[in-house]
Amino acid sequence: MTFLATHDVTLIFGGLTALREVTLELGEGEICGLIGPNGAGKTSLVNVITGVTRPTAGHVTFESQRLDRLAPHEIARLGVGRTFQHVEMFADQTVHTNVLTGLHRHLAHGFWMNAIGLPAARRSERSAHHEADRLLEAFELGAYRDVVAADLPFGILKRVDLARALAARPRLLLLDEPTSGMSEVEAEATIGACRELVRGRGLTLLVIEHNMQVIMTLAEHLIVLDHGEKIAEGTPEAVQQHPSVIEAYLGAKLGASRAGA
Asked: pTM (2 decimals)?
């Protein structure tokens, strides 16, 4: 059964077509990579799926439910989460507190229960702190637990962002360049943690990634966009050999080279 699908999604901003009739399907528990040159429409597609942008035409379904009619918070409530290319943290709060914010909608108590210290509220709080700590350990962030976010480099903040997104307990998680700013060692550790979380939680991932070594290692299935259109789809091995993909990437590099000449 199809878990997530986009059906002929088109997105037009003024006279610019960001997406043109993009159709894709993801199965539950799948790790799918979304790749393409800069400006290919990858983030635009994620924005449509998560309700940030309404498509001009076409529609999106998640377990057969229409997403393109819903607001972002309604889509998140269904179990669709995401990270952003540019991390936004509560800069004056610790890493642990930032991850806790991802758990807020799952806490089984309200403000007044917490204020008067009812046992259910205390148990819920303890459980949330424990889950946040487990996520920090999964992404090798335990040493930064009590460090203020403003004092950390971008690569570590990307891992914190991942942990916070997973704290919301999504069933589908869309990651926008999750390893950007990381060292090779950090990227490998993040790939390993993502794989374990997919296996352990039955999570489904759609991952935008420019690091080809990372995405070829992580993803089981790739979708390639170029100028807003899907130009290839298949296993990492098949996609690497696809003539349209080779042309898109070589053309992008050639254009950049000429622009710098």
From this structure: 0.84
